Amino acid sequence: MSDNSNMPDITPSPAPTPAKSTSPKVNRDAIQKKAKSDTKTNTKTTPKPKPTPTKKPTQTEERTRQENRAIGLAIIRNVNMLATIDERQKKREKKLKALKKVMPEMKKLAKREEARKKKGEEGLDEKDQKRMDEIKEQLRAEGVFDED
């Protein structure tokens, strides 16, 4: 017979047993299903609400809307006009108040000027003319000579 001592032993070895893990048993199918459901909810977009069809206004509704708009615009115009009139009135009152303040002194200066004219002299003397110029400057500062 032949000598098989040089030949390796070819006997089938028992099937290797998988190493036991110490981690708890994991259900991979459940994890995959959960992942799929998560991605589905994440990628889903919320449906856009359908716009409600707008009803075309009737002729009377449209006319009423236009009339109301015209009335509103007229009210706004009137309010603006009243505000402008009020501003002008305040300016006039301010000017009148400033004039009333200097009126007695202006009358005195005017009487002096008339008296000098009767004597044959022209205008005011230097002191009175200086005071008249000061009064005019004060009135300019208060806005009496401003144009509206």
UniProtKB/TrEMBL annotation:
Residues 1-71, 98-132 are annotated as: Disordered. Residues 26-41, 58-68, 102-132 have a biased composition (Basic and acidic residues). This is Uncharacterized protein. It comes from Knufia fluminis.
